[in-house]
Amino acid sequence: MAASCRVVTSISDIPTGIPVHLELASMTNRELMSSIVHQVFPAVTSLGLNEQELLFLTQSASGPHSSLSSWNGVPDVGMVSDILFWILKEHGRSKSRASDLTRIHFHTLVYHILATVDGHWANQLAAVAAGARVAGTQACATETIDTSRVSLRAPQEFMTSHSEAGSRIVLNPNKPVVEWHREGISFHFTPVLVCKDPIRTVGLGDAISAEGLFYSEVHPHY
């Protein structure tokens, strides 16, 4: 079924069997972030976050690449992939863990990654592409992508992992969404056409995640 949205003020307000998306926000309290990871993540179905939130999350919960103090320019795709994999493997749904988390939508300026536990979501390619498209149109305040006002800044090649022997991916302009798999988790990567002179950036992360959810199909396992 297609994903739908409903705003609630606390986890206790969520009816049983309703898929829930959590959009993280910037924070500086590591104890609070750690408690969110261990207590809130198992209660949500989907998670959205950017590069600062992802790095702070892994630092707070002693995850992969947690010794990294900051990203050096564009976040390394392999490192991002390792952290997303760890979140879903350690805190996501499995046969031995009572967690609902099966989806993470990561967004940074120049690329997005959608990571999903196999068997729970469909239409990921369209979902991650839709999120990237709205990033370009909303930032430029246009209805469609204006190629004269955007630029491609995503890495042209990258490793899919640094924690294990990952694959080297070279982007194909004719097939920009790249897919790879790792131990029951699927990754969909897309470059973003970045607005050269952004006009509207407030709420952009929310718009990206909402658009991705709109095109996502969740398979209920309740």
From TrEMBL:
InterPro entries, per database record: ADP_PFK/GK, Ribokinase-like
MF terms (GO), sorted A to Z: ADP-specific glucokinase activity; metal ion binding
GO cellular component terms attached to this protein's record: endoplasmic reticulum
Gene3D superfamilies per the UniProt record, alphabetical: 3.40.1190.20
Biological processes annotated in GO: glucose metabolic process; glycolytic process
Keyword match ATP-binding: no
Official protein name in the record: ADP dependent glucokinase
Protein source organism: Pan paniscus
